[in-house]
Design a protein that fits this description.
Strand order of the largest sheet: 1-2-5-8-13-16-20-24-27-30
Largest sheet: 10 strands, parallel
Helix content: 10-25%
Cofactor: Ca(2+)
Keywords: Calcium, Cell wall, Glycoprotein, Lyase, Metal-binding, Secreted, Signal
EC number: 4.2.2.2
Oligomer: single chain
Family: Belongs to the polysaccharide lyase 1 family.
Protein name: Pectate lyase
Number of strands: 31
Structural class: alpha/beta
Strand content: 25-35%
Radius of gyration: 21 Å
Length: 447
């Protein structure tokens, strides 16, 4: 019987795996091609971004993760652990169930004070202010027809302007991007108050820039697109090769905050952060229907990703996810108070000795007895990975899930209440992530 069960598992994997998209960022040919294609303009942007990325790096990452943990421990609102079901509007009092949401969601005048959102980010992306201080830009037109002579009122026109902008939307709209949407620094995309869908086209590219907030939108069914002449700023356009099919690609950039997004079914990754990107927080978001969800660090040979620092907080990793929530190379990743309700292969993986601190998460193992392990070390023998610091602190394991720890135990952690997030135990995750994903906010009411 055991042999038969094992054969069935192997057969099911043999059927499943060829149908899933491998992450194209991991091929060495990809890196050779893209390193060679940078013209002097992009090489200059890369040099500037490297300076910004190094400046955004925190020399003591434990202090940053500890401040987040402290603020969570001081806030638990409500006793109901049930998740807010889609399509059913909650009509009771405002329940901001985690410290990021508490900063802005219960203000009925949020629409008149949108830029307050920039004061709410925590974790490694805590210095991100996006377009704060800049004017508002109202997107009025969902079209995306011309990649060079951009039409005012479109999202592509907005994200390529010079200087800080806070980008909002006149009405609900679906935007089908003809090519990757290449952003410039100091921008906020704020979808609150309407329904904004980036769908069935290309994805969002955050390349060699800094200071970006993406909030309150839905991103799904992102496809590979062929490239061509594309504007990437007010003053420059150039030839781009085929896009990779990521929902959001963070490439050599810093001070990035992604909050309350809903994402599913992108050709490559949902969110990838590569090429020395750092100072990133991904929070309050809902992810479903994808194979390789998140890739942090794309190449074993690119050790500049050692400066990568990413916080994952209050996210819900939901139905029909397979693996990589995230998969990390190098860097320091704080995974705090997320709800892992579904995976088919594993939840958190990595190679090249990343530091992964898993704190106060809930892990509900799949029914497949061969996929209960949360962690996966790739391409490394135990003699090597046993020294990597992968620690589980106050996580909750359900349905047989288990986390294989490694590296030195965190004793007398240097957590500073001024700089770090402190998690609640995993048993609180249901309420902390209750409102994960894009919110249905109405002007004049708490969100």
């Amino acid at each position: 019987m055991a042999i038969r069960q094992n054969l069935l598992v192997l057969l099911s994997l043999a059927v499943l795996i060829p149908t899933l998209n491998a992450n194209t960022l991991e091929s060495e040919e990809y890196w050779q091609k893209h390193e060679n294609e940078f013209d002097p303009y992009w090489k200059g942007r890369a040099e500037t971004a490297a300076v910004d990325n190094n400046a955004a790096y925190f020399p003591d990452p434990y202090s940053v993760s500890g401040n987040l943990s402290s603020s969570v421990s001081e806030l638990i609102v409500g006793k109901d652990k049930r998740r807010n079901l889609k399509g059913q509007r909650y009509t009771g009092p405002c329940m901001a169930t985690n410290p990021i949401d508490r900063c802005w969601r219960c203000d009925p005048n949020w629409a008149n004070n949108r830029q307050k959102l920039a004061d709410c980010v925590q974790g490694f992306g805590r210095n991100t202010v996006g377009g704060k201080g800049g004017p508002f830009y109202v997107v009025t037109d969902p079209s995306d027809d011309n990649m060079v002579d951009l039409k005012p009122g479109t999202l592509r026109h907005a994200v390529t302007r010079t200087g800080p902008l806070w980008i909002i939307f006149e009405r609900s709209m679906m935007i089908k991007l003809k090519q990757e949407l290449i952003m410039t620094s100091d921008k906020t995309i704020d979808g609150r108050g309407v329904e904004v869908y980036i769908a069935s086209g290309a994805g969002i590219t955050v390349q060699f820039i800094r200071n970006v907030i993406i909030h309150g939108i839905k991103v799904y069914d992102i496809q590979v697109h062929g490239g061509g002449m594309i504007r990437d700023s007010e003053t420059h356009y150039g030839l781009r090769t085929q896009s990779d099919g990521d929902g959001i690609s963070i490439f050599g950039s810093s001070n990035i905050w992604i909050d309350h997004v809903s994402m599913r079914n992108c050709y490559d990754g949902l969110i990838d952060a590569i090429m020395g990107s750092t100072a990133i927080t991904i929070s309050n978001s809902h992810f479903t229907d994808h194979n390789e969800a998140m890739l942090f660090g794309a190449s074993d040979s690119y050790d500049k990703d050692k400066i990568m620092q990413i916080t994952l907080a209050f996210n819900h990793f939901g139905k029909r996810l397979v693996q990589r929530m995230p998969r990390c190379r190098y860097g320091f990743v704080h995974v705090v108070n997320n709800d892992y309700t579904h995976w088919e292969m594993y939840a958190i993986g990595g190679s090249k000795h990343p530091t992964i601190i898993s704190e106060g998460n809930r892990f509900i193992g799949p029914d497949n007895v061969h996929a209960k392990e949360i962690t996966k070390r790739e391409y490394s023998p135990e003699s090597e990975w046993s020294s990597w610091q992968w620690r589980s602190i106050n996580d909750e394991y359900m349905n047989g899930a288990f986390f294989v720890q490694s590296g030195p135990e965190l004793v007398d952690r240097p957590f500073s209440r001024q700089d770090m997030i402190k998690a609640k135990p995993g048993s609180y995750v249901g309420r902390l992530t209750r409102y994960a994903g894009s919110l249905s906010c109405r002007v004049g009411l708490p969100c």
